[in-house]
């Protein structure tokens, strides 16, 4: 036990002496490793935050409202709802009545309540809010629901293909950019650490030869 303690003490003493013997190189090595780890950690944090933002936007954009014609009976709307729910691409379907649509409309910011009162009747249609599992299926779902006689024709849905395409592109770019940055920074970290070790060995080559 005493011999083991002496070895540990000798190892720490030697390391401490070598550190101060080449203080400049040692401090530079520690700082470089610290900066690299800090940069890598910061990058991972930024990428995680970006991934969360993209995921949130994808979740918001993964739903469309299918507007029903005013002549659509409630029973037919419920049958249409069940039909959409049976689609394996669909995550959920929610029926929104005309009154619920008006309640949502009233909650819009900067909306003058007097504008609603002047309407007299409720012009908003009932709808089915369809949420898909994969945002890339929205276009196909939109095309299919438009063929139903229960769906209003002006407009049939609130689907905006340009917005969806931009979100899909953003998700791809963010994923590729994150992977490239992680690989690049990891490679740079390994290169800098190896260069630092080689520099330290070169400066202590005489001690090593002895």
Helix and strand arrangement:
Blueprint: H1 2-21, H2 23-61, E1 63-67, H3 74-85, E2 90-96, H4 98-106, H5 113-117, E3 127-132, H6 138-145, H7 161-203, H8 205-209
Helix pairs in contact: 1-2, 2-7
Order of strands across the widest beta sheet?
1-3-2
Determine the N-to-C terminus distance.
30 Å
Please report the number of helical segments.
8
Q: Per CATH, what is the topology of the domain at 64-159? A: Alpha-Beta Plaits
What is the beta-strand fraction? Answer: 5-15%
Tell me, what is the CATH class of the domain at 64-159? Answer: Alpha Beta
Please give a structural write-up.
The chain has 210 residues and is mainly α. It has a domain at 64-159: Alpha-Beta Plaits. It has eight helices and three strands; from the N terminus they run ααβαβααβααα. It has helices at residues 2-21, 23-61, 74-85, 98-106, 113-117, 138-145, 161-203, 205-209; strands spanning 63-67, 90-96, 127-132. It has a three-stranded antiparallel sheet with strand order 1-3-2. Helix 1 (2-21) packs across helix 2 (23-61). The radius of gyration is 32 Å and the shape is elongated. The two termini are 30 Å apart. The model has no long low-confidence stretch (mean pLDDT 78).
């Amino acid at each position: 036990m005493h011999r083991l303690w002496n070895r540990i003490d000798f190892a720490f003493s030697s390391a401490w002496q070598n550190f101060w013997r080449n203080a400049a190189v040692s401090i530079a090595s520690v700082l470089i490793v610290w900066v690299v780890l800090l940069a890598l950690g910061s990058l991972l944090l930024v990428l995680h935050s970006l991934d969360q933002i993209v995921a949130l936007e994808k979740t918001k954009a993964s739903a469309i409202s299918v507007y029903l014609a005013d002549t659509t009976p409630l029973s037919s709307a419920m049958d249409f709802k069940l039909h959409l729910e049976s689609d394996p691409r669909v995550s959920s379907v929610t029926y929104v009545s005309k009154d619920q649509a008006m309640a949502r409309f009233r909650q819009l910011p900067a909306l003058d309540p007097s504008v609603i009162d002047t309407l007299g009747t409720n012009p908003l249609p009932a709808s089915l809010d369809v949420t898909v599992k994969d945002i890339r299926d929205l276009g196909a779902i939109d095309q299919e629901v438009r063929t139903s006689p229960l769906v209003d024709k002006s407009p049939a849905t609130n689907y905006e293909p340009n917005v969806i395409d931009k979100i899909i592109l953003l998700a791809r770019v963010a994923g590729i950019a994150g992977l490239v940055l992680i690989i690049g920074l990891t490679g740079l970290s390994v290169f800098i650490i190896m260069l630092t070790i080689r520099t330290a060995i070169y400066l202590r080559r005489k001690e090593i030869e002895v």
